Amino acid sequence: MTASPRTVRVELGDRSYDILIGPGLIASAATEIAKRLKGRRMAVITDNNVAPLYLDALMDGLASVGIEAVSAILPAGEKTKSFEHLIPVCETILGARIERNDAVIALGGGVIGDLTGFAAGIVRRGSRFIQIPTSLLAQVDSSVGGKTGINSPHGKNLIGVFHQPDLVLADTDVLDTLSPREFRAGYAEVAKYGLIDKPDFFEWLEKNWQAVFAGGDARIEAVAISCQAKADVVAADERENGQRALLNLGHTFGHALEAATAYDGTRLVHGEGVSIGMVLAHQFSSRMNLASPDVAKRVESHLKTVGLPTSMDEIPGTLPPAEVLMDAIAQDKKVKGGKLTFILTRGLGEAFVADDVPASEVLSFLKEKHPA
Amino acid sequence: MTASPRTVRVELGDRSYDILIGPGLIASAATEIAKRLKGRRMAVITDNNVAPLYLDALMDGLASVGIEAVSAILPAGEKTKSFEHLIPVCETILGARIERNDAVIALGGGVIGDLTGFAAGIVRRGSRFIQIPTSLLAQVDSSVGGKTGINSPHGKNLIGVFHQPDLVLADTDVLDTLSPREFRAGYAEVAKYGLIDKPDFFEWLEKNWQAVFAGGDARIEAVAISCQAKADVVAADERENGQRALLNLGHTFGHALEAATAYDGTRLVHGEGVSIGMVLAHQFSSRMNLASPDVAKRVESHLKTVGLPTSMDEIPGTLPPAEVLMDAIAQDKKVKGGKLTFILTRGLGEAFVADDVPASEVLSFLKEKHPA
C-alpha cells in the first residue's frame, strides 16, 4: 500500500475542491472518487496515448466500486482542442445519461483536461468534473483553476468557460512514462511559480531539479508547491480580473510563438513556448529598466540547464517576422482598449501586471531578438 | 419623441443589469448602449426574418454614436440552435476583435438570444452581451435570467452556459410585426407568471388580454410584470438549485411534446408546447388530488380563449405513444437519481416544485390523455 496522498485545497466557497497528489493515485482513483461523490454514472474522456496505459485500470476500478462508466478515446495532440472533437464528447456525455451527482472524468494531459472540462462545463449548463492529469504540465497548471477551452483559427484557448473540477487526482508515478521533453515542458510551469513570487522555491529548484526529474519526494514536493501556488492565486481572483494574470508570466510571448509555429508540437510545445516567453519577459523587463539584467541571465541559465529552449532561434524552422508575432500578441486575450498588458518583473520572484506597455517597445524588442 | 422606457433591474450582485421596456427602443438602442457601456466594437447577430426589418436601423444607430459594428445573419428557426451555427458565430465575434468592454448583441427572438448568448458566454470565456429581443417570448422569458444554449440530438437546450446579459432592450413596438400565432405563443409565458404565484395578475390577464394583444400601455405593463417576476425568481436562485425551477411550469410536458414533434415549428412552437404543458400540469395536479379540477378548467379556458392549444390532440400530425413521451421527459434536465421532478400546483397561482413524482403515475396520466 502507498502512503496517504498530499492534499491541496482550492478555496472557492461552495465550489472548493481538493487536489490529491501522490504515487499510485490512478489505482486508487475509484475509491477516492466514491468517497467524495454520490454519482453512480461517469463518462471518461481520454486520448489514444493515455488509454493503453491507464484506461483499463481506471474503468475496472470504477466498476469495482459500483460506478457505471462509458469512455471515449480521442486522438492525442493540440488539434483535438477543437469544435470537431468537442461535439462528439458532448454527445458521449449526454448519451451516458449523466445526472446531477454524476461526473465527467478527464484522463490525460492538458488537451484532454481543457476539452473535457469545457464539455463538462456546457453539458446541461455545467456537470460535475474530475481531473486525472497525466502530464506534469496538466498536474501543476491546467488542472488547477477551472480554465477550460478549445482553440479557434483566431488563436489558442479563445473559446471556453470557467468550470471548476470537483476533484483532481495527480498521480506522480505516471510522470515516469513521460518523454524527457514532455517532462521538461511541464517543468517550465513549475519554475514559473518561483519566478512569480517565490524566489526561495526557484532557488530550491536550482539545487534540486534533478531530484524532481528523478521522481520520489522531491517531485511530490514540487507538484504540491506548484498546485498550492496556483490555488492561492485562483482563490484570490477566480475570474482573472487582476492578480490571476500573473500566472500568464511568459505566456503572452509563448502563445505568440505557438501561433507562429501553427501549434505544431514537433517544433514547439506549450511549456517550451513558456520557457522562451519567460526569458523574453525577463529580458524585456531589463530593457525597460525594471529589473537587473542579471535576473534574466539567471532565469535563462537555469532553464537552459534543465534542457529547455530559452531563445526564439532554438525553434526549428522559420519564424514569421516580428510584425507577425506582434499581431498574434495583439489578438491574445490580455488586451484592453488597444493597450498591451504584460507580466513583467522587478527582480527574481517579483512579477507584476503591467497594463500600459507600449506596443512600439515590444515590437522593437522583438525585432532585436528576431531580426528578419 | 417617446416617453422614458420602464426599467426592471435584475439584481445579481456585480452581474446586475437593467431591462428597458417600452416603445421605440430599437431606434434609441445605440444611445442607450453608449450611455452604459464603454466598448466601441460590437458584433450583432440576427436572423433573416428580423434583419430586413431592424438591422439597418440598429447598425446606423451604432455607427452614429461611434460604435464600429459587424453583423451576421443566420437562418430563422429552432434548427439554428446547433453547433453548426454556433461555430461561425464564435468566429464572427472573434473576427470582430471584440475586447473586454465591447459587446455581442443579439437582435432577434429566443433562438437568436439563446445561441448568441451562448457564443458570448464562451468567446474569451465570457464576453459582454446585449439582448434586443424581438418576440414576446424572448422579451418575457429568455432575455431574463442568463440561460443560454443550443439543442442536442439528445434534447433541447442540453448544451449551454449561464451567462447574464449586460443590458436588455425590449421594444414593445416590434411585437406589432409578430404573427398572431407567435404573439400567442409568447403570451403563454406571460400567463405562466400568473400561474406560478400571481393569481391577481392571471385574473388581470383574463380581463385585459385583448388590450395586451392590441399594444399600448397594457402590453408594456404585461411585459414589465413578467420581466419583474422572472427577475425576482432569478435573483433569488440564479443557478436553478431550487425555486427557479418554478419557471419550468408547463415545460417538462412542453419540452417532451416539442421533442416528439422534432422541433417542427409548423406543428408546434415552444409557447404552444408550454400552453399544453401548463394545462397538463394543472390536470395532473388535480389527478394527484393536489388541486381542485376547477383550477385546471379555468387555466384551460383562458388559454383556449386567447387561441392557444390546450391539449395534445390539437397538435397536427401523429404523436408518438405515451411511452416515447415519457422517455423524452426522463431525458429532460430535471431528473435526480432517476426520480422525476415536476412543477405542480395546489391552486391558482400556487405552483411548487415536486421532486418525487412517481414515473408510473405520469405514464398512466399520459396514456389517459393520449391513448395510442
UniProtKB/TrEMBL annotation, chains A, B:
Enzyme Commission numbers on file: 4.2.3.4
UniProt cross-references to InterPro entries, sorted A to Z: Dehydroquinate_synthase, DHQ_synth_AroB, DHQ_synth_fam, DHQS/DOIS_N, DHQS_C
Pathway(s) where this gene product acts: Metabolic intermediate biosynthesis; chorismate biosynthesis; chorismate from D-erythrose 4-phosphate and phosphoenolpyruvate: step 2/7
Enzyme class: lyase
Pfam families listed in its UniProt record: DHQ_synthase, DHQS_C
Binding site for NAD(+): G110, V111, I112, G113, D114, T134, S135, K147, K156
Catalytic activity as recorded in UniProt: 7-phospho-2-dehydro-3-deoxy-D-arabino-heptonate = 3-dehydroquinate + phosphate
Record keywords: Amino-acid biosynthesis, Aromatic amino acid biosynthesis, Cobalt, Cytoplasm, Lyase, Metal-binding, NAD, Nucleotide-binding, Zinc
Entry superkingdom: Bacteria
Positions annotated to bind Zn(2+): E189, H251, H270
3-dehydroquinate synthase N-terminal domain span: 73-184
Cofactor(s), names only, from the UniProt record: Co(2+); Zn(2+); NAD(+)
Ranges of residues in domain 3-dehydroquinate synthase C-terminal: 186-335
Family named by the database record: Belongs to the sugar phosphate cyclases superfamily. Dehydroquinate synthase family.
General function of this protein: Catalyzes the conversion of 3-deoxy-D-arabino-heptulosonate 7-phosphate (DAHP) to dehydroquinate (DHQ).
Protein name listed in UniProt: 3-dehydroquinate synthase
Gene that produces this protein: aroB
